[in-house]
Write a structure and sequence with these properties.
about 40% strand, Sialidase domain-containing protein
């Protein structure tokens, strides 16, 4: 299945080759509510760990037009993503059993693509790691049991891209899916300079545990056929008014 196109927010990072396209945190203590807006990312936050936020924080995001929704085949999911080109970081709000919970992703992170199973039992968001310099990673925010549990995993860059000219760039995401047993594949690609030319390099990652851990990148000679599976790409949408109103009231 091909990843949908995502236009990265201006000024956050340099992207290349982007085509159309962990442990779960349940039961962990959450930090005290925060109410500061110098940056979207707040001290003490960690990827995939539930955190409490005040209504003023959510209103600040809404007033900044920094909330977006997701839909599958036109049906809105009970999630809203907060990210702002003028502020650092990304945070996902998810509603389960009538209660909203906030799940930060990373400081400086940008969500690139999002997927869900048809009944919303599992959701997966791929994001930039948000770290400058060498050794960048993808972050994968995963939810299960219809948004009741979330966790984060890391997908490491190919070793050959651990070099200065890739210090703030990301290979394009081209394909992702999993089967009913949690065995999945992620395909990425990058245009790599070789002498005076650029050559497209394809990479494959695999997981056997629903994406809680991923293999190192394996070089491929060409892009493989899209993998069938249970995940479908989500479409970015403006925030649903009823979801936004519910989130603003934090219920």
């Amino acid at each position: 299945m091909r990843l949908f196109h995502h236009t990265v927010l201006a000024g956050l990072l340099a992207m290349v080759s982007l085509l159309p396209a962990c442990s779960y945190a349940a039961g962990k203590a959450t930090p005290a509510p925060t109410n500061t807006f110098a940056t979207l990312w707040q001290p003490g936050w960690a990827c995939g760990q539930a955190t409490r936020v005040k209504p003023d924080f959510v209103r600040h995001l809404a007033n900044s037009h920094a909330l977006q929704g997701y839909a599958l085949n036109g049906v809105p999911l009970p999630i809203l993503l907060g990210q702002n080109p003028e502020q650092s970081g990304a945070i996902l709000f998810a509603k389960h059993d009538g209660i909203w919970q906030a799940y930060p992703i990373a400081d400086g992170s940008v969500v690139l693509a999002a997927y869900s199973t048809p009944a919303f039992n599992r959701v997966t968001l791929f994001a930039t790691g948000g770290r400058e310099g060498l050794g960048n990673d993808y972050l994968v925010l995963q939810g299960k049991n219809q948004f009741s549990e979330f966790g984060c995993a890391t997908v490491h860059f190919p070793a050959e891209l651990d070099r200065p000219d890739w210090s703030n760039r990301y290979p394009g995401l081209h394909d992702f899916n999993m089967d009913t047993q949690g065995r999945g594949t992620l395909i990425t690609a990058a245009n790599v300079t070789a002498g005076n030319a650029e050559v497209k390099h394809w990479y494959q990652y695999v997981t056997n545990d629903w994406g809680r851990s991923w293999s190192e990148a394996r070089n491929l000679k060409a892009k493989p056929a899209d993998k069938p599976g249970i995940f479908h790409p989500l479409q970015e949408t403006p925030p649903s008014p009823w979801l936004l109103n519910s989130l603003l009231n934090l219920h």
